Amino acid sequence: MQVFTVATTPFTDQKPGTSGLRKRVPAFRQAHYLENFVQSIFDTIAAPPGSTLVLGGDGRYYNREAIQIILKMAAANGFGRVLAGKGGILSTPAASCVIRKYRTYGGIILSASHNPGGPDGDFGIKYNTANGGPAPEKITEAIFAASKKIAQYRIVEADDVALDSLGDSQIGDMAVSVIDPVSDYAELMETLFDFPAIRTLLSGGFRVKFDAMHAVTGPYAREIFVNRLGASADSMMNAEPLPDFGGGHPDPNLTYAHELVEALYGDNAPDFGAASDGDGDRNMILGKHFFVTPSDSLAIIAANAHHVPGYKRGLAGIARSMPTSEAADRVAKALNIPCYETPTGWKFFGNLMDAGKVTLCGEESFGTGSDHVREKDGLWAVLFWLNILAVRRQSVENIAREHWARFGRNVYSRHDYENLPANAANGVMKLLRDSFVELRGAQFGHLQVKLCDDFSYTDPVDGSVSTGQGVRILFTDGSRIVFRLSGTGTEGATLRIYLESFEPDVSKHNLDAQEALATLISIALRISELRERTGRDKPTVIT
Ligand code: VG1
Ligand code: CO
User: Fold this and answer.
1) Contact partners, residue 210, CB within 8 Å, separation at least 6
2) C-alpha 113 – ligand 1 centre gap (Å)
3) Is pLDDT at 324 greater than 80 in this prediction?
């Protein structure tokens, strides 16, 4: 095996964001760009010689080329074995599952998640540690630091590995095992959920639609829903993964999963609808003519966990990201278990799960999961709902309404302003930070500001501190407005405004969220001068 040491110079922009390094495909295709980042990972993690690495991605454009490069670099950097998903495919939760199951040193996941793909679309790469979860900030920061002073990378010259057939091959001293990307994950799901009960539900006239959005979950959904649970083949939509996701935006929300939304809101609608994103870690849950907000979904899952075999023993605790609604906190209180509030991004949940402090985690951005892996998990959430539905035999809407009647409703919405000029978005954030003193105690009609700050988090397990995690304005009646800049985009800046108010009165639970939040929305626009500073008169996406 001949190892080449290639001289290189640093790129200055390889700072991982909320979930890994994401850039446009042309950026990743620049000479040495991918190699520099991969070598920075290897230099940072310093895996002992002979270690095993998991490697796979969401199948987007450039996935295959990147995998061949990374395999040759892994061999040159002393790895003993790589477990690669067949066809270069591993959904993000499946990668987490495989890292844990085979006790590997870690894994590299190639994905830009919900961002569009294709030659001019986005690509991404992230490193997950031995617990199966995204590398914590101290590692991603060290990778960034390494990328800024890199001078060389190591790669071997070898033929490409045949990724489309299962089995073992060698690159020099390193073994490459091409594994079935679906089976380990599907087996894990069978240990958590009551498959016979779900099978009975699906064979009794209960109709489902799952939209894979031409992304990675197609083969997983077919195996689990159709082959193992007996759903009809036509209940799967867009189940053929495509490198450009069919030109779509594989983000399971009301805007981008509109085909599914139309089916669920149409005549003769199915009883249950769900979608997942590019890399399979997000989920959207719909009932007949009904949308479950992700924050409510986390709370409902928590409140119904005792119906599900894998969770019957009880929950240790719940964690949610700061912008996620407080609906889960109310359930935690009723269950008498702790609820943790973390910054945005799954990497902050890992320590809590490893320490046994929480069982369920969730984010408002259509992410829900548990300690079965260390990533959010789209199909897991869908199966959790199906298991609840198989036991309770009520509609999705009834389950949500009963939940609100018992706990009250945390009315919630997120407004995204995408692709803003960075200086306008930064200006808005700066204005808000500069306004803290005058905002504290300020009165807006019947609403009074109780607290405003820039959220910071001290990890209760390792004491690490993360600052600057979003501006929050809390009102005395429990309403909240949160402003944050996205850390996953590749172009311009995306400003997210998260809005929440609490409604205990059942007679008002029918209100449309945008109407119920109208006062908060107008306060948010006023104090941020968003319209004046960006020239935008409405959000690009409302969820
Ligand atoms: C977004 C979401 C965040 C999520 C992250 C990764 O980040 O808001 O909750 O963890 O995407 O999800 P940001 O920084 O753009 O707000 V995924 O499915 O893109 O890996
Ligand atoms: Co994702």
Assistant:
1) 217, 221, 225, 231, 235, 236, 237, 239, 273, 274, 275, 276, 382
2) 8
3) yes
What CATH number does domain 185-407 carry, 3.40.120.10, 3.40.50.970, 2.60.40.10, 2.60.120.340? Answer: 3.40.120.10
Classify the phi-psi angles of 232: left when phi > 0, otherwise alpha if psi is within -120 to 50, otherwise beta: beta
253 lines ligand 1 (CB under 6 A): no
483-532 pLDDT per residue, tens: 999 988 787 899 999 999 999 999 989 889 999 999 999 999 999 999 99
State the Cα–Cα distance between residues 406 and 464, nearest whole angstrom. Answer: 37
Cβ of 377 closer than 6 Å to ligand 1, yes or no, is: no
Q: Does the beta carbon of 104 sit less than 6 angstroms from any atom of ligand 1? A: no
* Chain segment 275-284, per-residue pLDDT in tens: 999 999 999 9
Instruction: Decide: helix, strand or coil at residue 218.
Output: helix
Measured CA to CA, the distance from residue 222 to residue 230 in angstroms comes to 10
Residue 455 CA, ligand 1 centroid: distance in Å: 17
Choosing from 19, 40, 113, 501, the catalytic residue is 113
Going by pLDDT thresholds of 50, 70 and 90, the confidence category of residue 534 is: very high
Architecture of the CATH domain 3-180: 3-Layer(aba) Sandwich (3.40)
Tell me, in angstroms, the distance from the centre of ligand 2 to residue 114's CA.
Answer: 5
- What ligand 1 atom has the least distance to the C-alpha of 344? 9
CATH superfamily of 409-542: Alpha-D-phosphohexomutase, C-terminal domain (3.30.310.50)
Residue intervals of the chain classified under CATH 3.30.310.50 are 409-542
Angle at Cα 23 formed by Cα 12 and Cα 55, nearest 5°? 105
253 C-alpha vs ligand 2 centroid, how far in Å? 12
Range(s) of the chain covered by CATH 3.40.120.10: 3-180, 185-407
Check pocket membership of 375 for ligand 1, CB cut-off 6 A: no
| 37 strand-pairing partners | none
- Active site (annotated) includes residue 479: no
Question: Which uninterrupted H or E stretch holds 320?
Answer: strand 318-321
Residue 276: name the closest of 222, 318, 341 by CA.
Answer: 222
CB 202 within 8 A of CB 193: no
Q: Which residues surround the ion ligand 2 when the cut-off is CB under 5 Å? A: 113, 277, 279, 281-282
